[in-house]
Batch of 4 targets.
Target 1
Amino acid sequence: MSFLTIPEENKKALFEDAHPLLVGSRAVGMGNAYTAVSDDATAGFWNPAGLVQSQGVKIFGMNKFHNRNHYAFDPKGISYGYRSFAFFWGNKIALGTNITNADYNYYSLAHRIHSHIAVGGSIKFKRKRFVNFYQFFGYDPSYDLAILMKVKPWIKAGMVAQNFPGKSGIQMLTGGIAYQYNNFLFSLDTSLPKKNLYFGFEWALIPSVHVRMGNSNQKWAFGTGYERKQIAINYACISEERKKSHFISVEIRI
């Protein structure tokens, strides 16, 4: 698959080029296996087709509150679902750090084309750091193309084709499957051309309390969460660069 190649300069695994994305404590706690789940506001980052799984407004924010030396982005976003359409805006901004890597703006659109099939896409822009004006878009655009299918009432499958900034064509394909049985959710992702593997599970101890565990390409993760109709609070910990990194995220639903 010659069109799925990582140029030499991208092997540094810049934040946007790397997978997993480490967005959303629920996803992190499940080992970053989230392509076929993507049922909250973070879907705009993971699989924009998943945005149509909910109606109304969702506002999301995340903070990495321990071990910010290696990675310090604090993603946030807002999604709006109306009937068969959904829209999303989000960005990744490194707050309170001197990291010089670019921030990112996301603009996503999703549409349910069939009762069991949704498609979506994102346009992503780099944002210059340390400037005194707001960057509504940015520079060096790239994109994601996505699909989400409900194969059975308890099985979903998703795929995302990812274009990297400054490149043409598709540099990465990520596919995933999610299996829901009562209060147990299992998900599995893999990506090309790197052939990385991500898997995880979520278990609802009671309807509002969840525990999670996963493996993100040989790095173990775990997490927990509290969820009500209008709010979800999630925590995750993952092994990263020989240290444990801790995340917390909040989603408000209107």
Target 2
Amino acid sequence: MKPITVTTFTFAWTLFAGTAYASPASYCSGSSNVCYSWAIPPSTSSASNSLYLRLEAPTEYQWIALGTGSGMDGSTMFVVYTDGSGNVTLSTRKGHGHDMPTHSQMSNVELISGSGVSNKTMVANIQWKDVSNMIDLKGSNHWISAWKKGSPLDTTDASTNFDEHDETDRFSVDLSKATTNSHTNPFTNTTNTQPSSNAVSGGGGGEDHTGSIHGAIMAVVFLLGFPIGSVLMPLLGKWLIHASWQVLAFVGMWIGFGVGKVAADRGGDWFHEPHVVLGTIVLPTTNED
């Protein structure tokens, strides 16, 4: 009996180990009810180089989006919105800094069964083929997401323009924990997305305000800080007060520059946008009197 027991236990453990992650990896952004899922077919599948994606949100959202990478610049994005006839439109786009992402037709991306609008929820099930040269199917990848509430777009036009996002999110997904047993559509029997406990890290949702903070600091420094400092000397005749004020403005300027650098890095704009290039060149030449 002992050899049989050991054999049975070994078989059961092997079966468990092989199916421990036999379900999609899922993530929902904060309290927004915008959810995303990732699924990898088994290595023996003919679709083994495919990545399956699911985007899901209430129809109160005008559009939702998921993109590759840690910033908009160069990101491959999947934007989903209602088409006005009970289905959804999938618009594949390429990110260019903080400009409106432009539509980019992708022949290896398609909507699959289970997509549509039901119970005030829009769902897009997506198959992305031949992704091994862009996505690490056996490791962790960075992703970004965004969403906008508002009136439905109700269009089949994949190139349509839409308003800027309300909020954004960034996170990483370990696709080694997203392998499923399904050789085809892993979302066929999915109703509501439930977040994974250990496949997704980071995230938290919310708007990134570093760009606005940078702008506010620089506006105060250049519109108030330096001009006030320049008139303190002729008004008060106290060089120490004048110098101290100018030093504070000078320090504030570099703090603003640092915040701007963070904002540019997050948006993928560092030395890609004219404002960033011009500011980086001009700022070091700024001298206090």
Target 3
Amino acid sequence: MKGKVILKWLGNCISTMFIILLVCAVFIVIASRAAGGETSLFGYQLKTVISGSMEPEMQVGSVILVKQTEGDDTFESGDVITFMTKDAILVTHRIIGVENDGQRFITKGDNNNGPDVEPVLAHNIVGKYSGWTLPYVGYAFHYVHTKQGAILFMFIPGLLFLGHAIITIWRALRFIEVPNLKEE
């Protein structure tokens, strides 16, 4: 009897955590879509690594956490920054040189042979790498941002939630006693 109570409690905890995770994930996807793909939470953004220029520290397909920059942030050699190129592409590379009193930066990918061609201007810096990396999750993030991925991401949890509701109702109905309608 005690084992059933523990299993029921554990099942309820898992269900509650699943629902909370589902709501958070849906919120992140919707907020990301509304913000043009850039979701920020507590001043941090998740970025997907799409090239091997920073390997081995950042593997292709990883997700990295980037702290958004403020106007008064300072950067020095060795910092890993995310910046916008003149072609509106986000790049994450290491600063190897500082020029013009911190207004221009020479950057280089750790896995590249030489520095980047264009120096980075301070106002083009989007954020600073926090040191947190989650390998391979970027592949899933990238897929979720496609039309099919977004639909699938909403559809599968919805089916799981519906299945859970049906099972819960079925279990509750099993315990309802049907009155005996025998004629006497």
Target 4
Amino acid sequence: VKSDPALRNTDLVLLTPLGEQGDAKRLGTIGFSGYLVKPIKETSLKETLQVVWGARKHGTSAGLVTRHRLGDSEILKAPPARPTSD
């Protein structure tokens, strides 16, 4: 998806039944915006999409949004401060 010019700016959020150590780092490196391991609460999915889309709206990147980062309430309060390179 990220190699296709028409889809390059698509935000990708992976929902997976299994998580392994190192997944978050690897997925962030290859361009994912979010990573959630099942079972996923509806509120977690909504908050993840809110953060990812909010960052895009503000022309920034939230980095990789995970369940652990959602636990940090600061990520939900303010737009991310890191500009995107696009």
